[in-house]
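Quick entry, no commentary yet.
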Amino acid sequence: MRKLGKKISSIILASLVLTLGLSGCQAKSKQTINDKNKETLVISTHDLVEGMFRKNVFDPFEKKYNVKIVLELGNNYNRFNKLREGENKPDLIILTDHFAMEGIEDGLFEKIDRKNIPNIENLYDIAKEPLGKDYGPSHTIASYGLIYNPNEIKEPITSWGDLWRPEFKGKIGLSNINLAGGIFPLLIAAEQAGVDIKKDEDKAFEKMKELSENVETFYNKNSEIEGSFTQNKVTITDGYSFFLDTMKQSIPEAKWIDPKEGSYAVMETINIVKGTKNKELAEKFINWILSEEVQKAQALDKVDSPTNKNVKLESTETEGVVYGEENIKKLRTVDWKYINKSKKRWTERWNKEINPKGI
């Protein structure tokens, strides 16, 4: 089960890490077109996807519609910037929600015709129109919460507020603000300070400054926090649901906690690129990847957490995935439009006040 569980961590890690130093980040085509009689569909997606999507997603779609899928691979940051700069023009692009919102704001995506994508109606509400009804749905979802080593903690952790407990000084690892999930600690700090960050950034940063006294490291790569956790330099870390299995490889007792205030949803959206000549085929592919059959196969292989509510899994099949209406409803969403507008300002302030040494 652990071996399977690492599949989901590999794919979404490639999605979430934004740093430029990530190996294999340049977008590249992994296929050549051998049959000129076949229509082609070019999909921009994450590194490592080809092997994990080939069996359940790509091969059956190619066979069903007599088409050829060509992949452009890379991480969110580089693929999105290449699209924005006009360096590539895929038909479809899969991006984490906050990058997708930037794409919408920049006018990079076509508006979808939901009549051509009937499987959207089978999704959990959170996934149907995460960034507006005119744009792509979420084909998979992860949650952002806490992972901790119970061997090193006396009192249970139940709340985001527990991160401020004095006994955790120098024992916490948090995402740096340049990561996809790096904005969540600041939002959590605002909530713990009792303010709306849109109305009072100062108190949010003051509370975050208090928390920074407990932070051993603000990590820039998931591999960094994995090493710190393994070496017991860090007892608690923020992270994604799929990353627990990786942590358990070195500390089998590692536990996941959904804080009582709620974990945050991280969604993978699929959008049609502006100007494509294959919009009809692109909509067919979106409908395909949202289908109950495909979503269940991906969940069973521990590649993706299903957003199609018709997918049914046995309790023994849910390890390593976010599953079920009850769990999905608990996830919190954020205003990515406002966050993207504020991110540059917040990052500059973060680097001066919260993490000036870049630790």
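second:
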Amino acid sequence: MLKNDLLLRAARGEETERTPVWLMRQAGRILPEYRALRGRLSGFKELVETPELAAEVTIQPVDALDVDAAIIFSDILVVPEAMGLTYEMVEARGPLFPETIKTAQDVARMRVADPEEHLGYVLEAIRVTKRALNGRVPLIGFAGAPWTILAYMVEGHGSKTFSKARRMLYTNPALAHELLDKITRTTITYLQAQVEAGANIVQVFDSWAGILPPDHYREFSARYIAAICDAMPEGVPVTVFAKGAWFAVSDFAHFNCRTIGLDWNEDPRLVRAAIGYDKTLQGNLDPCALYGSREQVQTATIEMLRRFGPQRHIANLGHGVYPDTDPDNVRVFINTVKEFSTLARQGAI
């Protein structure tokens, strides 16, 4: 039994006594205890691939920030590596794939990964985390959306345009679909295994959704996300977060997901007008708002809460928290969500 199940109740559309709150990329980055641990290791991948350490980092923000959920410390790029395409995490540069997908032969070499065999370290980290949390808060599992994973596998690194990956969609769409199918099948079994290991809710991150035009997004991304949602175990809430793909929200309204994440450029009032109240919304404070004064953070947070309304909302940022953010401002954000939403439910404000 969970001691704090606010997030799950909000995702299911049940009334809650206040708005639950957590932050994307809360595990690490801003916390000095994370940086201290990371400094003792060879690098990011050692942390991700050592279950006890990944569990420790996962729990740090629950202790330090008092958020309403933990999210397992991992990376979306463990999926292409499990499929046979190794990545490196280069300090100050980000992910790098020494080899990339270019041809049909490259796609043929990619396997549909077995989660226990190829991603067992993530599953063990979930099990260790669940034991250590002892029911304090829900644990969020996650994976990257197939399009975002393909973008990295073809491009080989982060990019402003992902022109190599996007070129494939125009010049060899059949090959793109073949790769997307393999990624999707891997992702489905991976997320199912995360749930079996103890994840209470899962999120699909489509970080590069916004660089595709709407017709390509529906053909090369949304359909595969829909397949993932359909394959999740009954009763396990799914959150879809597609950064920059404002045009796809009306499609997500028909998916078997409980929650739709909004980035900071989306107006939840317009989203509600378009899709109604059948879905919970998550988000969407601008991460840069946390650079302001304490009073500015508090004001921005209250404005956000008013735009979303008192129910069917999970408070979060519109993207991951930036690494140079003052942890005290993060606490102002979290505490303001808790205090204002509690008073609003009670009719005190």
